[in-house]
């Protein structure tokens, strides 16, 4: 029985020696721990600057009187990831003190350090002069750290000597003794560190040195180095933070290397041993500043601090509904307020608050935002109530096609695509354009037309079927070939010219003779031969023109805005149609844009 118990005890001890992190075997790992005693003092800040430049962490064995005088220096060192350790209160020969005096020397300094590192922090101890006895060691109650490289910097006070003593005695697993109370030590140590780094040493704190080698230091035991054990458990990496909205709150999830812990704060305060310990996803109320550190030991074996601003979500942008001239503005979030303008200016919380539906005058641009205490202001929603009293989300007075679309919509030549959108820059299909002409002409399709249509790729129940049969019968369209009409293909500008030209001829319009207008286009060589006379004619009568570079762009998709313009111009050319309120705009320079696909149903065009 006794043997079983001792076996179990041995197992527990063995397990406790091995960190939970996964060992990475690295035969050539060269670790070294630089330590500074007797500070902090006025020189320590310069040392911290130099260490920060090199991205190096060390261990400070501090005396309590220095901690009391330079608490901010200790705090900076601790937050930078250096290890803070205890070197007594005022540096006495401990073996000459009584038990209570020894305990007081240790606890007084630990108490001062706890104010910086937080209660619950564990410290390593180094006895002044390295001088202990078994009585003193048992009283201290901490691991005792000696050294394997003594630079004797206190004696030589020469930076070159200090540097040489570091470099010439350095070895893997070494603990190097220095004193940051001497200016010559600061210079010599930084110069020596540069050489160690160049030689491939990784500079670590004492606690990291032990942890990476899988060694657990015991209280009351002295250690002067930590040789290669064949294992390297690796340095720690920063926690990875992800956030996801949950109502008005944000769910924060953090991950860190196996075996490490994550400490965090939500008020922007620095992390120490008293900070919150992450155990699983947390819900936070924005706005707040999350700081998080992954650590095997916050005191010297920690990641850099990650700071993340968690902001309020933006309110959903308001939406519009119109009945006649009465506009309702809607926010998807009930705990928001809406502000709007009617003069085109950008609304702020100083703009008119929305309470009840607004009567709109024609030719009004309305813009609105939603905001609330739990939100950042939304994106601005904009709409245009046109001269013809149409409501558009994507057509505004400054657009070249605004008037044409407004009038074409009034005339019933074209409709929007739903939800107050006209999609002016979208292409339209061959089927859609032929359907527009069919409706414009108020044409009718006969059973005989339906029977003689030769194309295999037409859906007989589609909205375009009757219009295509009619257009084919009248010679307005020929198809791509004998079998295909390709009703779903976007119509190009040269195709539109040809169809319009034939359509006008069918309507009895006397078109001008060829005038070689196409030669004015820089890219007229790229106009297909079958389209050349039609592009020429449509250019002559002013239905098409080039872009800013005088290119016709024959194979570019014609846009819905073009179709609206063209239909209005047709109406102008045909005297027997009723007058429209005003002449449509000229097609401007640079209207061509090869916009991506728009698939719309029969009601759309
Ligand atoms: Zn000392």
Task: Set out the fold topology.
Layout: H1 2-17, E1 31-37, H2 44-54, E2 59-62, H3 64-69, H4 71-79, E3 83-86, H5 99-117, H6 134-140, E4 144-145, E5 149-150, H7 153-156, H8 159-169, E6 174-179, H9 183-198, E7 202-204, H10 206-212, E8 222-223, E9 240-246, E10 249-255, E11 261-265, E12 276-277, E13 282-284, E14 288-297, E15 301-302, E16 306-310, E17 319-323, E18 326-330, E19 337-341, E20 352-353, E21 358-359, E22 364-371, E23 381-385, E24 391-392, H11 402-411, H12 430-440, H13 447-452, H14 465-473, H15 493-506, H16 532-540, H17 560-573
Parallel strand pairs: 1-2, 1-6, 1-7, 2-3, 4-8, 5-6
Antiparallel strand pairs: 9-10, 10-13, 11-12, 11-14, 14-15, 14-16, 17-18, 18-21, 19-20, 19-22, 22-23, 23-24
The structure holds zinc ion.
Zinc ion binds near residues 37 and 91.
